[in-house]
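Sample 1 of the test manifest.
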Amino acid sequence: MRDTLAERLLVRVMGWDRDKVKAELPLVLALASFKYDEYQQFSPGMRFVESLARWLRQFEDPGDRAAAYEFVKQRMIFCSSSEMCHFVEMAYPHHIRPHLLRRAAEEGGQNVRHVGRVAGSAVFKILQRQCLFLGLSDGARIDLFRRSNRELSTEQIWQTHELADERVHKLLEKLEEGVIALGGPGGQGTTFSTVVLLDDFSASGRSYYMPKDDGTLGGKIVKFYRRLVGTDGSLSKLVEVGRMHLIILLYVATDQALSHLEECSRTLWGPIGVPWHIEVVQRLPAQLKLTPVNCGPLAGAIDQCYDDVIHDSHMRKGGTDDSKYGFAACGLPLVLHHNTPNNSIALLWSYEDTRYRGLFPRIQRHKEAP
Amino acid sequence: MRQSRNPFSQRRSESIDNDSAFLNLFEPGILDILSESDWCDTVRPIRSAAGGGKTSLLRLFTPSVLLNLHARRNEEPLKDLHRKLCRLGAIDDDGPCLLGVLLMCGRNYALLQELDVDEARRKRLFFGLLNVRIILATLRAAMAMRQLSYPEDLDRLSVAPPESDLHLPGLTFPCPGSALHDWAADLEVRVCEMLDSFGPLPAEPLPGHDSLFSLALMRPEALTVDGRPVASRALLMMDDIHKLSAGQREALFQEVIELRSPTGVWIAERFEALTTSEMLSAGAGEGRDYAEPIVIESYWRKRYQAFEKYAMRIADRRVRSSTSIELEDFRPCVPSSLDGPEYAGRFQAAIDAIRERLARYSTRSEKYREWMDATASKTGSLEELATAWRTLEILIARMENRRQGYLFEDALPASELDDQSDSSVVNAAKLFLAKEFGLPYYYGAEVLARLASLNIQQLLGLSADIFEGLLSASLLGSALVLSPAEQHRVMKAAARSLWENIPRSVRHGREVRSLIDGIGRYAQWYTYQPTAPNDPGVAGSAIRMSEREELLAASRDGRRPQWSRLASALASGIAHNLIVPDLDYKCKNEYWMVLNLNRLLCVHYDLPLFYGLYKERPVATLYDWLDRPFEPARAKESFL
């Protein structure tokens, strides 16, 4: 749709007069231009203004429409590609390196505040080399992470935590060479001393630690745990469990996810004596969460403009009766530039083919077979 | 990014990224500021507040813009510009003949001042960096003049030895452009390394120079490409000089003057670079060591009607460049008439209210009977009638205000009413009507141009708001017109925004705003007295020139801190074009420094926009306003 037509549609849908158009439209266009047009799941030719106009048109009640528009202006959070890149670039220097420096200072008997001296020490360099970075999903942006951290070896970063035996062997082989090159002892049996599991976003933390009906845990990190220390043990060669540190590093996460990860990590890793840390580059505080109580006039719109077809078997795992406030009722007002999380309110992400279409329609990852 | 939908939103020359668009938007009226005889042969400071149009003027003389203009010289909108540049000798039938070298001085230089070395070494680094940047900019401009690639084709450029003895280690003249480029680039890297270094500076001699020898290399005849001179004239245009430190700026001026460069040098800076005493004495006694500075606001102040036409032509160029709506002229979009049904009711209500107020005089005596009859018998539009009644009310108030009453209360003849109803009192009546009955006052193209207050950036800002209204109208399918009421609202909002931003955007901002507030509130109180003294109203204040001298002395010797404080606030207000001074204004057998408010600030205080009317105040009162806002005397309230 041509920009002008989309603008005209928006103006008509909102019933704006000249003053209102003058006040609102430049803002909408600026938001579109700076950020929202870059949403990757808009269908071909679609841009933000058109999507906004069509989305607002779904609300029959003008009050709901106004509330929805105000929500977009005041409360919605859009994480752009450049912002996400910035988080990735910050992740190692601001969140992992300080851990390693602290440990190196302790091991080398140095003052942790003498950062330059500690960072120049062989102990730190070996510790840094013995740090293994594994992606938890394709959102981990391993390519960018690798390019952003030239001080790390490409042989200590891998895009997935599901490693084949051959890859495990290769990683250890290169580790040994690397440690020797840094003046370390090397030799067979050299293992990684830190494992960092990376991902881009978590709202509930349940895809990493998923509580099951029988009281046990499932999820990606639990699977990783089993391969590392369990009977499967396919990754056990990578580390010496008694000396390993685990860091879960998320570029964006909610406080809700953080609490869940902390609680489950304590249960899982505590008993085997593995020190663990959760690091989040950009925290989304609990007060962002939308609930029927705190979202004011928007509550009516969330309630009415909802198609329960989106509450499929995957959404039901969140333990709620519907998906109005997103997976596990996380109630996020969040859009990520590549896809809207299903933890956001359904009003934002409902699929293109449902009765009510989201402002930033989501691409379904777990599409059920018809 | 989308293309900007509002052509007025590009308010800085630098943000117009291609030369063709720049030329389309450039209005040649500003070139009249240049004297045809010596416009590019001397050292000449060019000053204005931010947004006065300095950088646009400088950019016009760069090779790529001149070449673009030459190629498009037959296009109707550019013919006038081409003709003017031909007359100045910047361009001829064969193309550009001026080598204009533009150097932005905002980068790095002020950092040198923070280096932990003595002043002499700092100056050496400064001149060193400036020399290499001038050389590199000259080489780039020379290549652009000949449409060659920089730096690949620099071997085709030959640099002749300077006229004076000049020994540069590692370089001998004549030399190819590439050798000079490598030499300069190497030196630039070495100086910048010093700047970037966190550690102490090395003990060995610092790179740099003791003089600005680069000016000697810029002689047009010294630069040849394939044996032919690059240009017949050369002009170095240094912009953003206000970003240098005070010491660097002074050293630069001194050096350029002492060198008596054969090349023209323009030094463009904002007023904020000037010291308080320079600012307060601006316009008096300059120009001994260099050509008289071009002060853009001062130039236009003497020709404000020309500025207003110039401003409208700029607006027309902008609307023509719009991709959102098709418009040829800006003027029809901002109508300047209150004819129409939407205002008829209000004018009628005004007439009724004024007649009712005046009724008490007719019941008391016969004195004003003829005046009232004459007014009642007038014909015309409702606006004219309402204005006539309000004029009558002012004139009656004046009569009633006379201390010495008449012996006999004879009816005043109607002819006396005609004699007293001059255009000034009529204008005051229009202002009073607007204020009292909520009618628009600030509307129309002339008003818009006047509200720019001689500043292009301010014009573009106001026009951008108007244009946004036109875009809204276009979307709603309405006529591309902004009604006077809408225009008035836009102007009031812009004025408020300017007023609110003063503390954030101006040095000594809080004090500047307090001073402006004092001037504005006092002018408002004075203007809206029932007798409309000094009609149609005042829009500024004034102090005696002798008081100004005392302020200057205070700012120099610092012995009277309170006056020095006022001087700083005043200078800062002037530097940012918030207060527009007129020096040596003769009135009441005395000389005055008139302090006009920026015209947009007049809107904030509901003041008229006519120039030249002020109400003087003692300098001590102005000082008081810095801390205590003006409060009107109870005994003499204005009708507000």
